[in-house]
Amino acid sequence: MGELSDRFADLMARMAKSDADLFRTIGEQNASVRQMVDDLAPGAEDITTAPPNKALLPAALLPPEDCSQKALKARFGKAADAQGWIESQIGKAPKKATWLVIEQTCRNGAWPAAPKRAAASAKGVSAEQLEERLSALEASLSQRFDRLERLMMLLAEAKEPSG
Predict the structure, then answer these.
(1) Which of 54, 59, 144 has the alpha carbon at shortest distance from 109?
(2) What is the pTM of this model?
């Protein structure tokens, strides 16, 4: 029984050491990510001169040279195929997209906003419409967080020392 107790104590000590190593590694990774974000984020003096919510703007889906209609048509062939790919990246399209809308969406990283109708805004928003809008916003944010998480995982893997 004493031997079993000693083995258990040894196991617990090794687990505590590995947990401490894990938390230290996570802390170092968090500090590294914070440093990268600080390097990329505008400084306090830039915030006052930058347009509002600049940091919240979505990133382009494709490099700028791949966003022309010619390049998009060569890549996808049909507008429906391009729309399907974009929907898998950022969510459902507000309506059937034209090549112009697809090009704009690939450049901006978001579907263009639908024009507001004066009659609809005068009536107010029903609870169902509000719930639908919130659900769409939640889905969009969830997809962005997933993309950000994948990017952070890639950064963490790239930063791991090989050896």
Answers:
(1) 59
(2) 0.40
